[in-house]
Specification:
Length: 201
């Protein structure tokens, strides 16, 4: 946790505009100490949190203190989050809603754009917040398809795979690591922008 917050602080020395959201589980924050974490996170320049194992029923643990500290608390909705459950999930959500497009583990399947679009529309009937969609997006075409219905596209596993493929035998970054990541990001961004252009025409 200390190293992660130090990385954010270092990043902020050169970029105080790009939002930084930390995603993970509650246990490291609990061990670090909630009050200490919120103080150090805001000081470092963190903008928001996605803590995947704290349901709305536990908002007093971290969600409400985070909001009071000025941090966005971003909640996940999934294909199994029905209309009865959704208002509880959204109640104290801020920043954006993260829609998990598939059931299962990230990187294990490909999202269905039609189902994703319908799910995003359903979520938007309950909130004015932007909806970001993630899980299973690996290509520019997939990113474009998701972007036609969502406000943002989240990519994680595909980036991890590109990084992994560029490492040396000891697991260290090589001269090709940055270029490999940049190339994938450019392709994904181009896909999203193509969908935005289509929507504007």
């Amino acid at each position: 946790m200390t190293k992660t917050l130090a990385m954010v602080a270092e990043f902020r020395k050169e970029d105080d505009v790009t939002p930084v959201v930390l995603m993970g589980y509650y246990n490291p924050i609990y061990i670090y100490g909630v009050d200490r974490f919120l103080t150090d996170a805001t000081t470092a320049g963190v903008d928001g949190l996605i803590v995947v194992d704290l349901p709305p029923e536990e908002d007093a643990e971290l969600c409400l203190p985070a909001l009071n500290a000025g941090l966005n608390f971003i909640r996940l909705a999934t294909p199994t989050t029905d209309d009865k459950r959704l208002p509880s999930v959204l109640k104290n959500t801020s920043g954006f809603v993260y829609y998990v497009s598939i059931t299962g583990i990230t990187g294990s399947a490909t999202p269905d754009p039609g189902r994703v679009s319908a799910a995003v529309a359903r979520i938007k009937r309950h909130t004015q917040l932007p909806v970001a969609v993630g899980f299973g997006v690996r290509t520019a075409d997939q990113a474009a398809a998701i972007a036609r219905g969502a406000d943002a596209v989240v990519v994680g596993s595909a980036l991890v795979e590109v990084i992994k493929g560029s490492l040396d035998t000891s697991g260290k970054a090589t001269a090709s690591t940055t270029a490999a990541v940049s190339e994938l990001v450019k392709r994904l961004a181009a896909g999203v922008r193509s969908a935005r252009r289509e929507a504007a025409e």
